[in-house]
Amino acid sequence: MQIVDSAMKFSNLLKNISVQGEEGKPKVVFWQGKEAPTLKESQTIVGGLIECVAEIYHNETRIKDVDIIINEEGLLIGLELNEAAKEFCKIPLAGNVLVLKGEQRLK
Question: How far apart are CA 63 and CA 100, in angstroms?
Fold first, then answer.
């Protein structure tokens, strides 16, 4: 996915992200900063308006201390489904996914 590829060119983002996913496919981006990303940083990573996904799971157990940020219009605008995100979310997610934990979560 070109969104993260272009986002990685921003040096301030590069130190704050860890990316998982196949080349040319939507990515799962783990935020590494101590504080939540800015709106602009979040939008750059997901490639548009942001939406927080409410239900995240691990081995059928709901996880409450994690925010998953996606492109709000990802499915509508035809972004590719994020296969890597299937392991922790039971709904289809399109495009890049931003994972925020603990103090990184949106307030």
Answer: 12
What's the chain look like in SS3?
A: CHHHHHHCCCHHHHCCEEEECCCCCCCEEEECCCCCCCHHHHHHHHCCCEEEECCEEECCEEECCEEEEEECCCCCCCCCECHHHHHCCCCCCECCEEEEEHHHCCC
pLDDT digits (tens, 9 = 90+) for 40-77: 999 999 999 999 986 676 667 777 778 889 999 999 99
With a CB cutoff of 8 Å and minimum separation 6, the contacts of 79 are: 1, 26, 47, 71, 94, 95
Q: What is the pLDDT of residue 5?
A: 44
State pTM to two decimals. 0.77
